[in-house]
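Quiz preparation item.
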């Protein structure tokens, strides 16, 4: 066969990722085979010794030897057989298939990646909470349609992101739980006639349970789709933050300075500070969607059970998870190093009449007319301000507020109820109050609103939620670590047997 024809079916490139998982799977399987009396103790010991030494030279093996095989499972089994002979090494694959083996390896490898990602997500949540704490009093314009809408605080804005990320965390935990079940022992799809113990291998490998149905176990990659779908959601959220950083760092906004570590210069324009990292987070969101689309398309309409098509999903998973974790990590650094231009933000907060909603609300409270009517009245006022080119760039100080108040309550343009023509006779003091941006924000103190007291309360609650989520993450990592320790103890015990046998000879 031509070399490239042979190359076509190889999975060794992505299998580099699965090497350590495969060694673990082999160890657990051999320990169980021995415990079940399916293979003899000296055979088990010889195989386990061989796997341990292979593990010790893993870097060289992955670089030099792995590429010569069809996949990592074949490579490891072949080396074991080369080293201890087929009569002993050939027993390792008893009662299993590459189909359950690869599915188990992917789940183990993904699990490790999910731990990294969960840690990164919580790191970003922490960074956002800390930034928010610094900016409880930083007033800024809030936007809808990217047009000035109403004033808010930078803390309130950042907290919105922590909430989205908290949901991403729980989606990832669900993806984790659907990942962390063991297909091992399903063999090709019909399980095996050997008296294997699937629960034992599952617990030695840190799985929460066995993925029971043997045909389902080797056929499904839904956990991968679910994981990449969760990554996609997460990427949406951080791409929005990245996009805001890009916008806010433009000369037009000039709200923030992105840390020097996250900008680059230009090869021709000496003054440039380009937000390349944020741009790449934005771009790689597309990359992750691409992985999701590939996974969905590859898995669609595959007849049960295993098909080689499934091999093609694995590289997309690896690319998606690594891209996501790296992007979250980059965003964390960017948030931590963010320099906020408080005065610039605050100066923009009243621009474009962001107090208009509060003024309409005040009219409702003062005169008892309906909100819709008050909306019409203030809308007419906003148009006339636009027509006369009211200068929002001047400082929004008490003098300026007085000027606008006079316009609203004074004789010149006295507001009247558009429906009845009746004069509104607004109280000057309350109009002034409505135009004050800072007190405007403090009035919005209902659950979830930007008032400082409410933002502080939310922040405390989010701190607690983050601590709970961190605990969940650490417990899961700890459970896996304990299982691996147990596996390693069993491996050592069973390896010692061979030494005793050798000494007795
Ligand atoms: N490299 C393969 C994969 O990733 C391993 C399973 C091969 N199984 C088979 N029946 N050809 O799916």
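Solution:
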């Amino acid at each position: 066969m031509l070399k490239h024809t042979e190359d076509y079916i190889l999975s060794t490139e992505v299998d580099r990722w699965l090497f350590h998982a495969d060694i673990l799977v082999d160890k657990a399987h051999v320990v169980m085979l021995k415990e079940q009396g399916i293979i003899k103790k000296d055979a088990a010991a010889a195989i386990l010794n061989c796997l341990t030494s292979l593990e010790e030279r893993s870097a060289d093996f992955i670089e030099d030897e792995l590429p010569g095989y069809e996949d990592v499972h074949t490579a490891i089994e072949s080396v074991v057989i080369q080293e201890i002979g087929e009569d002993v090494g050939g027993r390792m694959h008893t009662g299993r298939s590459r189909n359950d083996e690869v599915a188990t390896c992917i789940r183990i490898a993904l699990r490790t990646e999910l731990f990294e990602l969960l840690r990164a997500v919580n790191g970003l949540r922490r960074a956002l909470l800390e930034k928010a704490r610094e900016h409880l009093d930083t007033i800024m314009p809030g936007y809808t349609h990217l047009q000035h809408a109403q004033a808010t605080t930078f803390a309130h804005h950042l907290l919105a992101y922590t909430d989205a990320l908290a949901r991403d965390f729980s989606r990832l935990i669900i993806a984790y739980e659907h990942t962390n079940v063991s297909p091992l022992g399903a063999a090709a799809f019909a399980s095996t006639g050997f008296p294997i113990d699937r629960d034992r291998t599952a617990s030695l490998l840190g799985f929460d349970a066995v993925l029971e149905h043997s045909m389902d176990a080797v056929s499904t990659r839904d956990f991968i789709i679910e994981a990449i779908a969760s990554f996609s959601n997460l990427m949406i959220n951080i791409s929005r933050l990245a996009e805001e950083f890009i916008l806010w760092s433009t000369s037009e906004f000039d709200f923030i300075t992105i840390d020097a570590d996250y900008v680059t210069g230009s090869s021709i324009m000496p003054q440039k500070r380009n937000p390349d990292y944020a741009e790449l987070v934005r771009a790689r969101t597309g990359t992750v969607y691409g992985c999701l689309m590939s996974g969905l398309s590859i898995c669609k309409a595959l007849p049960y059970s295993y098909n080689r098509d499934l091999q093609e999903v694995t590289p997309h998973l690896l690319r998606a998870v690594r891209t996501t974790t790296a992007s979250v990590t980059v965003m964390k650094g960017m948030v931590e190093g963010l320099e906020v231009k408080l005065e610039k933000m605050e100066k923009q907060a009243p621009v474009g009449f962001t107090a208009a909603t509060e003024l309409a609300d005040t009219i409702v409270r003062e005169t008892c007319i309906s909100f819709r009517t008050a909306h019409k009245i203030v809308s007419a006022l906003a148009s006339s301000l636009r027509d006369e080119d009211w200068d929002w760039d001047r400082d929004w100080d008490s003098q300026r507020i007085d000027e606008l108040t006079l316009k609203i309550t004074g004789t010149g343009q006295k507001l009247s109820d558009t429906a009845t023509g009746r004069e509104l006779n607004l109280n000057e003091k309350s109009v002034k109050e409505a135009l004050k941006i800072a007190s405007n924000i403090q009035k919005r103190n209902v659950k979830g609103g930007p008032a400082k007291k409410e933002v502080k309360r939310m922040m405390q609650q989010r701190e607690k939620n983050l601590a709970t989520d961190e605990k969940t993450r650490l417990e899961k990592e700890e459970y896996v670590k304990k299982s691996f320790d147990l596996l390693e103890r069993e491996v050592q015990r069973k390896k010692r047997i061979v030494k005793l046998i050798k000494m007795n000879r």
